[in-house]
């Protein structure tokens, strides 16, 4: 059963997409710039609950993008509107304010329509922090808001975050090599990105994801998870948090996956960032592309079109188009995503670009620094299509 819903009004843009009737992606992008923020949160979660109950969807991964100071109020509203225990914190709250200023950007939900399978809670240190979904071909594990010690420095929090990731994975018989996707949110990316990369690389070396003896020209052959690394804070006072998706294949004839560097950009390992451009999944009935955060970078790793937001947007989409072509997909195969603008004033150029190309995507828009001060635009996303 293919599900595809689009609903737009003065309050929100709603997108619901599923290509296989099993995995469903719900994006609710706030459109009301003037409404009371807590009333907006209530309205968006009411709509989410309506969709979840109508299609009998169980939430697997949930991210809320909004101004951090509303976290506790939003948590209560979420529990009330989704009919949850008031202590339920199994979602990620990302400091992702909308382009008009303080408030809510929206909600991303990845859900599952269950038949004979079940989704179990993932617990770590006595807290429910994720979900485990098992099928006959593959097991999926999602963990929200993985982090390190708040008192540690930039390097320390990153290293500890990955150690926590490994511990919770191991508890459920997963390993770091099973990770296919991380969404990493750094509080002050321009200050901490170098230390973040050093710590991540050390963890990946220690856990055998790659070797520092590998020739640079062979980096495209190394498996790395897809990743977003962006400057979004959190309400917990941490310098870095991550959501992580891992898979454990049980039947390679029914399910396989691979990492991809694309056509227009080479491996980010060439300049010290340990992630792949995308992860491609194939379960023989449908295909998924988990696109890493993508920006205006050429195949040598250089930022191109300095100070030109329009050309940086165009370059980013060109890179994405070329990568998706490998899987015979296009932009309209997107099922969820996030657009990051370095400055709120860039919104008009972005909207005009999308109109000119007739692009309408199920993506939230927020304001955030990218990993380099000269990068003005970044987009990540998940794409899906039938085989």
From TrEMBL:
Source organism of this protein record: Ruminiclostridium papyrosolvens C7
Alphabetized Gene3D superfamilies for the sequence: RutC-like
PANTHER family according to UniProt: 2-IMINOBUTANOATE/2-IMINOPROPANOATE DEAMINASE RIDA, 2-IMINOBUTANOATE_2-IMINOPROPANOATE DEAMINASE
Protein name: Endoribonuclease L-PSP
Molecular function (Gene Ontology), one example: deaminase activity
GO CC term (a single one): cytosol
Organism classification: Bacteria, Bacillati, Bacillota, Clostridia, Eubacteriales
């Amino acid at each position: 059963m293919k599900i595809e819903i689009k609903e737009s009004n003065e309050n929100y843009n709603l997108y619901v997409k599923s290509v296989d009737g099993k995995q469903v992606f719900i994006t609710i992008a706030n459109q009301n710039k003037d409404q009371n923020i807590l009333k907006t949160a209530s309205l968006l979660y009411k709509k989410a609950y309506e969709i979840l109950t109508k299609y009998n969807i169980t939430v697997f991964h949930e991210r809320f993008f909004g101004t951090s100071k509303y976290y506790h109020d939003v948590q209560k509203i979420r529990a009330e509107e989704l009919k949850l225990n008031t202590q339920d914190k199994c979602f990620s709250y990302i400091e992702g304010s909308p382009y008009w200023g303080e408030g809510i950007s929206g909600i991303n939900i990845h859900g599952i329509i269950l038949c004979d399978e079940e989704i179990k809670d993932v617990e770590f240190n006595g807290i429910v922090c994720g979900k485990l979904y098992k099928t006959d071909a593959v097991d999926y594990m999602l963990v929200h808001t993985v982090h390190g010690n708040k008192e540690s420095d930039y390097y320390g929090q990153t290293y500890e975050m990955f150690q926590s990731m490994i511990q919770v994975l191991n508890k459920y018989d997963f390993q770091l090599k099973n990770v296919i996707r991380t969404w990493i949110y750094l509080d002050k990316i321009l200050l901490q990105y170098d230390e973040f990369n050093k710590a991540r690389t050390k963890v990946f070396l220690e856990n055998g994801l790659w070797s520092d003896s590998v020739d640079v020209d062979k980096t495209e052959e190394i498996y790395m998870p897809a990743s977003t690394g962006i400057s979004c804070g959190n309400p917990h006072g941490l310098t870095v948090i991550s959501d992580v998706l891992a898979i454990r294949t049980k039947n390679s004839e029914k399910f396989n996956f691979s990492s991809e560097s694309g056509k227009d950009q080479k491996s980010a390992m060439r300049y010290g960032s340990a992630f792949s451009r995308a992860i491609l999944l194939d379960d023989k009935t449908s295909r998924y592309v988990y696109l890493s955060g993508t920006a205006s970078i050429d195949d040598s790793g250089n930022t191109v079109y300095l100070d030109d937001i329009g050309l940086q947007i165009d370059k980013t989409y060109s890179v994405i188009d070329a990568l998706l072509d490998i899987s015979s997909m296009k932009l309209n195969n997107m099922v969820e995503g996030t657009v990051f603008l370095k400055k709120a004033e860039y919104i008009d150029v972005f909207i005009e670009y999308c109109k000119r190309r007739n692009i309408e995507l199920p993506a939230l828009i927020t304001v955030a620094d990218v990993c380099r001060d000269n990068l003005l635009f970044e987009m990540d996303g998940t794409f899906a299509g039938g085989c």
